[in-house]
Amino acid sequence: MKLFKNILSWFRDERHLFYLFLTVLTLPNLLLSITEPMSAPARIANVLFPAGCYWLLLSLMRNCGKMVWLMFPLTFFAAFQIVLLYLYGRSVIAVDMLLNVVTTNAGEAMELLDNLAPVIALVVVLYVPPLIMATSAILRRAKLSREFITRNRHIGAATLGAGCIALATAYISTPGYTVADDLYPVNVGYNLHLAIDRTKRLDRYAETSAGFTYGATTAEADTVPRIIVLVIGETSRACNWSLLGYGRDTNPYLSHADGLAAFGNALSQSNTTHKSVPMLLSPITAEDYDDIYAHRGIITAFKEAGYATTFLSTQGRNGSFIDFFGCEADNHRFLREELGSDCISVVDNDLLPAVKRAIDNTGGKRLIVLHTYGSHFDYTERYDGQTPHFTPDRPVKAEPKHRDNLINSYDNTIRYTDQFLAKLIIMLEACGNEAAMVYTSDHGEDIYDDDRQLFLHASPVPSYYQLHVPFLVWMSTSYRTAHPASWEATCGNTPRTVASSVAFFHTALDLACIQSTALDRSKSVASHIYKESPLLYLDDHNEAVPLPDMLGLQDMTRLADLGIVISDPQIARR
Fold this sequence. Notes:
Layout: H1 2-11, H2 14-35, H3 40-58, H4 64-70, H5 72-88, H6 95-102, H7 106-113, H8 117-140, H9 146-173, H10 179-182, H11 186-203, H12 205-208, E1 217-218, E2 226-233, E3 260-267, H13 273-280, H14 298-304, E4 308-313, H15 321-326, E5 331-334, H16 335-338, H17 352-361, E6 365-371, H18 403-430, E7 434-441, E8 446-447, E9 455-456, H19 464-467, E10 468-475, H20 477-482, H21 484-493, E11 498-499, H22 500-511, E12 514-515, E13 536-538, E14 544-546, H23 547-550, H24 553-561, H25 569-573
Parallel strand pairs: 2-6, 2-7, 3-11, 4-5, 4-6
Antiparallel strand pairs: 1-12, 3-10, 7-10, 8-9, 13-14
């Protein structure tokens, strides 16, 4: 009983609230000064300057509880930052991370939250007690002594002064250092501003893209029935495809498919779905991404050229460009949405009946775009109803010690994708018309692959595993007969490097025999004049960055193992 009274007395002391809140608020600064690549002055400034600000803010009121609640946004950022560091091991809260929060459906969020229990528990332990103590202080109208406030104002001012000196030194000694990019939590506030701005621009998309046209046509004599199918995978990394050299048999069907060309050196320009998929479905790339607000998607180009269009997705709407581009189609369906936003039982094979109807019920030229769930975590949900090939595949938690189980379940998703694409190919071949299919994934995935212990995707700093994706082109017998040059060129280009975010759009238009000023056949892998595009990455601030400037030595070594060698960042800019 005495112990309980002592604990209660400790928690009722506003001085303890003052220092406890100051400590937990400064914790992200301390962690980021360790995890981020900074100069010594920048590390010192990243701790002392914000700590001085926190100290002075807490000293503004004698009722510390009120000040704690007024500073709640900083508390939220701190908790969010701790979770981010747990997930990715480094990096400040990025624009894309903020946008991912609003573009992730409830089902996906719950699948992820189930595996964040340890860090969520930590965040609760760190940040809930000060909030409870603050509420109690407000209700009790408790006040700190004037002497305590005065003393801590002096300490806060001294700390802030030391932080200003460190900050000035960082500016002078560190090339490219800016407060907006490098000083937490200022950089989080700046990134939040950018996220809000992009959301507002997205809300005006209908206005800013009004009147856009590709001027797309087909040759007057081109009246042959033709089906073009574009398949966008989800979270599928090339290094787990046996078709591309993986040691496990994850592609038993596609490995024996006629008319299939597989590109093993394909790299995405983004590791996030809300950026990667719009780049696949438009001529927009990392070099001009901000122009996307004035563009329509690839479906519009096909419609202008006389194609009947269908968009089918196993995912739900997420308020991104994917929704806008998909809804351009004559017929569009989001299967997950139809069954309820929280439904996790939708699998990619559920798309096939609708694909069959689109093939059978519409004559002439047809475009079918499929946005799949592929290999998105929780992996075991992606092949529901199918007997797993690799076992055990049911990890208790997403942790490094369960990597073998995670890889088993992930590889099962690749086999499921293999089966799905094989069924699609059989269906298209059987229709007898000219038919072609292009498949790639939006991005890859980290699965505790090395000593960095990274997991999932969309990290502020990408890895090789998040960018190396499969890229496939299939042509039916009738298509190869009618367009032998396209088939020859495609096969000849398979050893070459492919920027999937660039090549997907142009290859699709090229295979469809569409003429447009937006088409650049040197970017189509089905063309004899194909040229490799620069290896770029679309960073958090929508700037195109050469891959060597983003990837670490481990990642560049893996690219070199593929035959992709970049010794100088300038090479990537050519």
